[in-house]
Amino acid sequence: MIRNAFAYVTRKRLKSLIILLVILSMSTLSLIGLSIKDATNRAANKTFGSITNSFTMEINRQVNPGTPRGSGNIRGEDIKKIVDSGHIDNYIKRIGAVADLVDHDIIRTQEITNSEDPDRAEKFKRTTMMTGVNDSSKETKFVSGAFKLVEGKHLAKDDKNKILMHKALAEKNNLKVGDKIKIKSNVYDADNEKQANETIEVEIKGLFDGHNNGGVSAATELYENTLIGDVHTAAKLYGNTEQTAVYQDATFFVKGNKNLDKVMKDLGKLNINWNQYNLVKSSSNYPALQQSISGIYSIANKLFGGSLIFAGLVVSLLLFLWMNARKKEIAVLLSLGISKVRIFGQFAFELLFVAVPAFVASYFVAGIMGKAIGNNVLHRVTGGIASQIAKESASSGLGGGAEVDGFNKTLTSLDVMVNPKAFVYVVLFMTVILGVSLLIATSKILRKRPKELLIDTK
Hints:
This is ABC transporter permease. Helix content is 51%, strand content 16%. The chain has 458 residues and is of the alpha+beta class.
C-alpha cells in the first residue's frame, strides 16, 4: 500500500506538484497569520506590560473643565483615599506645570518663530512644559514609547529637586547628567493662579530622547522642551506642596490577588465626589494602539481562517478530479478483493507523501515572507488610523506634544518569527482539512461496485 502510494505520487508528478503547491501556499499563509498574531501579542505585552491590572483617575470633562489651562485638578486627598483603600499595590500621580529655564535657552524652530505671536514669544521665550511624577518609569510618555531614557536614572518617589531633560535640550545648553540648573515659575501661565514666583535649583538625573510625530503650533509642544520633574518640584512652581497641589491624573496598580473591575466598582463607595472624576482602565488611554492591535488581529485571523477554508475547497476539488480519473483503477483494485479501507489508506498515504514536503517547506517560506507581509499589514492598518487621527485633529484643532502623541500611538513594528508551536497548529489543522477533503472526494466513488465504476463515464 505504501509502496503503491509512493509509486503513484512519483509517476503522476504534475498532479502531485499542483496539490503540493496548493498545500504549501495555504500552509504558508496560515503560518504567517498565526506568526503575525504572535508578534502582535508580544508587541502589545511589551507596551502594556507596565500598566497591566491598573486604572487611571482623571477628571470628568463633561462637568469638570479642570484648571484654567485645561489640565486635571484632582485633589491629593482623594488620591490618598484610594491609596489607603487596601486594594492598591502602587500608584503614580502626575502634576502638569510650566517651568522657565534660568540662564538657558529652549529649542525653537524657524517655523514656530515665524508663526508665533510676538507677545507670547516674549512671555514664554524660555518656557518648558514640566510633568511632575513620583515614578517616571511608569509615566505615560515613557510607557507609550514617546520618550525613552537614554542616560542616567528614572525619577523615584523620594526624589526632590531632580529632573529628566531631553537629550537635545541638554546638548544645546552644554549640560549633562549631574549638572544643576535653575528653573522658575512663569507668572503669565494661566495655571499659576497664586502668581507664584519661585526659583528652584534642580539636578539633572537623566536624559531622554524622542521626537514629535506631527506638526506643532508652539515651542512648548516640542518634545525637546519638555522636562520630567519630581512631584515636589512641580508643585512648588505653583506655590504648592505635594499635599496642597492639584494633580493632572493618577494611575493605580491593583494588588495581584484583586480583580480590576471589582476594585474599580468598590472604590465608587469611597467618600469622593465622583461626579468630578472618572476611573478608566489604563490601557484605554491608548485607543489608537488598541485599534491598531485589533486591526492586525482581524487581518491575521482572516489570513489564517481564509487559508484553511480555501485549502479545503481547492484540495477537495483537485482530489475529486483526481479520484474521478481513477475510477477504472479503483474498480480493478476492488475486483481483486482489495478492501475499500486499504484503497482509502493508499490514497491517504499518497496525500501524505505530498503534504509532508509542503509542510516542511512552508516553515521556511513563512520565515522568509513573514516579515514582509507582517510589515505590509502593519502599515496598512496604522496608515488608516493615522489618516483618521489627522482628520479628527484638523477638525478639532488639537495641538501636538508628547501627551497627544502618546494618546495617538500605534504599533510601529512587528517582529514576525515562525515558532514551532504555530507550525504544529498549522500542520494539525491542515491535516484535518486534508483528511476531510479526501473523505469528501472518495466517499461517493468508494460506495460504488466495480461494475458501476467501469461503466460510469461521467
